Amino acid sequence: MILGDLLRCSAYDSDATFVGHVIDARLRATALEAGGCLPTEIYGLIIGPHSSTSFLGYERETTRAPWIVDRLMRWHHRGTFLVVWADVEMIVDQRVHLRPGYRRYRAVLPPDQRRRAGEMRTADS
Q1: Is CATH 2.30.30.240 the classification given to domain 3-111?
Q2: Are 27 and 3 in contact (CB under 8 A)?
Q3: What is the per-residue pLDDT across 19-44, written as a single tens digit (0 to 9) for each?
Q4: CB-neighbour burial class of residue 108 (10 A; exposed 0-12, middle 13-18, buried 19+)
Q5: CA-to-CA dists, residue 121 to 6, 67, 81, angstroms
Q6: Partners of 97 in the beta sheet?
């Protein structure tokens, strides 16, 4: 599957309830290979319940934007969350099905990208 094929897919929880659209993917670097390449893997999917468009580069907590752009992006992406790849049960017919008991994490990137996965905040915090 091509990563771009996931964008704008509908996302559903284990009860087949619509939870939003896939608006982006979060990648992470894996171990450095001998050739100097830094391969990546999908860490999770960003799901937006009110929008099917990306953050347009404003997903960092420390990104500065004109106040009107900041307010518009916050409103447009309210409720947006990150689901780790392990919580994706299957992808069929442009639909992403999430596992029972999946967790919603904050989609906004922290200022320090070296933050460990164990320090992630849930969407509720």
Answers
A1: yes
A2: no
A3: 999 988 888 877 766 666 777 888 99
A4: buried
A5: 24, 25, 11
A6: 12, 90
